[in-house]
Design goal:
The complex is a heterodimer. By secondary structure, chain A is an all-beta fold. In chain B, strands 2, 4, 5, 6, 9, 10 and 11 form a 7-stranded mixed β-sheet that branches. Chain B has a 4-stranded antiparallel β-sheet with strand order 1-3-8-7, with no helix packed on it. Classes of the chains: A mainly beta, B mainly beta. Chains A and B meet through β3, β7 and β8 of A and β5 of B.
Chain lengths: 108, 121
């Protein structure tokens, strides 16, 4: 079971939109609607931002959205804010769970 | 309010067995659909899922670490315990436990603060 593939880094200016991709296989992302996304600030525990591909927990701004097409899931953050700068991890259920390698988001 | 807190040794020697406890509140592991999982993160590295136990005692393990891991629960004490045998310096990491509720069963919805475990002689 290999880790999901994410870009190592993405960046954007305040107010802009960015999208982080997460590529897996038909055995994980493509096979289940159980993709989740986590935000992690330095030295903090991860926080779920999206679950079940596109659902947002209460308290998560609607600037965060998730989607999936085939074996690739995506996290889009619109109206970037400084506090969005963090590491983001995707995760997929596949009978067990597998995480992506993480993407560092820099807000310029 | 759901809380989870990890506890265990901060330093273990190579070849020793690590035992970590996750103490939680705000939910019950006897509720249908609920799970508690363990995830670790080596310094500067990505998250790595280790194991999860469900309310019905169904247990799932990372295929790459399955031979070294055991996860158990004590529903009466609201505890989940993870043991990892034959520890190695590469197992140095922050270990998190997390709650997986029925309404978001494919995700880790609430996390503990994590506990740093260093493997060194």
């Amino acid at each position: 079971q290999s880790a999901l593939t994410q870009p190592r880094s993405v960046s954007g200016s305040p107010g802009q939109s960015i999208t982080i991709s997460c590529t897996g296989t038909s055995s994980d992302i493509g096979g289940y609607n159980y993709v989740s996304w986590y935000q992690q600030h330095p030295d903090k525990a991860p926080k779920v931002m999206i679950y079940d591909v596109s659902k947002r927990p209460s308290g998560v701004p609607d600037r965060f959205s998730g989607s999936k097409s085939g074996n690739t899931a995506s996290l889009t953050i619109s109206g970037l804010q400084a506090e969005d700068e963090a590491d983001y991890y995707c995760c997929s259920y596949a009978g067990t769970w597998v995480f992506g390698g993480g993407t560092k988001l820099t807000v310029l | 309010q759901i809380t989870l807190k990890e506890s265990g040794p901060t330093l273990v020697k190579p070849t020793q067995t690590l035992t970590l406890t996750c103490a939680f509140s705000g939910f019950s592991l006897s509720t249908t659909g609920v799970g508690v999982g363990w995830i670790r993160q080596s310094p500067g590295m990505a998250l790595e899922w280790l194991a999860l136990i469900y309310w019905d005692d169904d247990k799932r393990y990372s295929p790459s670490l399955k031979s070294r891991l055991t996860i158990t629960k004590d529903t009466s004490k609201n505890h989940v315990v993870l043991t990892m045998t034959n520890m190695d310096p590469v197992d140095t990491a922050t270990y998190f436990c997390a709650h997986s509720p029925l309404y978001a069963s494919g995700s880790f919805y609430n996390w503990g603060q994590g506990t740093l475990v260093t493997v060194s002689s």
